[in-house]
# Entry
Amino acid sequence: MLTFFSQFIKSPIGRHLTLSIILFSSLITLMTTAYQLVNDYRGDVSRIDRVFSNIEKANLDVLAASIWVIDERLINTQLNGLIQLPDINYISIKDDSGQSWSSGNLKQDHVLDKRFPLVYKSPTESINVGTLEVQADMDAIYQRLYDKAILILLSNAIKTFLVAGFILFLVWYNITKHLDKLSNYCKRINLDADYEPLQFERKERVDEFKQVADAINSMQHQLRSSFDDLKNSKSALQTALEDRERLLKLERSYKEELARQVKERTLELEQSLTALKRAQQVLVEQEKMAALGGLVSGVAHEINTPIGICLTAASTQLNHIEELIELIHSDQATLDEINAILDEYQESCELIVRNITKASGLIQKFKTIAIDRSHEEHQCVNLKEQLNEILESTLIMHPNVNAKTQITVEPTLNVKTNISLLNQMVSNILSNAFTHAFQNREDNLVDISADIDDNYVTISIQNNGLAIPAEVAEHMFEPFFTTNRNKGGTGLGLSAAFNAATLLKGTMSYQADSTLGGAQFNIRFPLVPCEFVQLATSSTGHRHSL
# Structure
């Protein structure tokens, strides 16, 4: 028993179980006691009401007749009889003349009273002769209820503690002491010591504790087996760690060697990159010189014709001048002959002026293309006129291309931009089309259009020539990529145009599904509006932009 109480006091489960049983039993006891007391209270009140009802039925007429004849002896006798009723502590009668009779002790608190009118019934009428007041004492009822509640609570408390103690004893005997043994056994488990199976001190039977003991013993077998494997693994791990240290040392030596080789390769790559950059600069200059050579060749071809005409006209004028001198010094000269020579001389001069003007225009366009102004400030330019100049200058470089061209741009569209970069983008795209798209073709067409969209200028250049294969379009903006290297191509044209678009803080893209069927390139750069003023400086029609 001492073991039971010591384990109960130390056991949190026992304390919690006891408290739960006591609280639940107390709650049930309080509920049943309250219900019983309420029923008893209602029964006592009903009994008093029955007493009041009996007084009303049996005594009112007699009391009214006694008051009518003023028979005090009979009145007192009746009052003494009524005061003997259960729970009645006070009764009084008052007649209509103010005279009163009473019996018992009058109380102010904890009472239940009722008043009855006293009516004398004569053969002819009913006369009100007074009032009967009856008072019942509730203290006696409350005391009975209190005593009963104390008795019920004490009896239930004793019963609750006895039941709780018996239940706790059963729990200790059947569960707690076995759990305590299980806990002590688990604390004593030592995998390095000899194996001792778990056995509970009770009759052998198959139940939950039997299953727990079998599970614990089986688990201990597995733990011991795993522990042996772990010790073997520890030994193997120790050997592996030693091998790892050797491998780490070897890895560090490999890394040092690799770092040295990477450093050497990096130095070689830097030298190769420097050489590649120099080669790229040389190829870019060669591309520029090749483009300039093509332009010079085209310009020379175009200028050769007007210069030859001027030379022929000048030689003819010399002959006319010699004929005019001879005619003037001769005696047979007539005015018609002189006028005829002067007319021919005037026609030759007009021919010379026209061809010299044409040659001057070609030279001006050559200057527009040839001069490198990539670092100049942005200038205001009429976009349609500038695109027309670029188109004409590019056609000079490709005299053998027969193509119809059309420019769809708002005539009043003026933009502020870097003219050289704009020239480079458009001329490189057009040159690429004239070189690759119109090989051995007729009815060639180039369309250039420009629109304004969300404060950006979009220039679309498309043609109806050969489409660009997908494998070529994937790499055509890469530097040095070309499909015409065996004919002198360097692969820098579209790459330079793409870089120029980037320098203008814009973009350049390729669109395969153009309306004309060939390639379409879209140039997009920010719109900077400006006011463009064109000033005529000579009869050749050259202009300057402000």
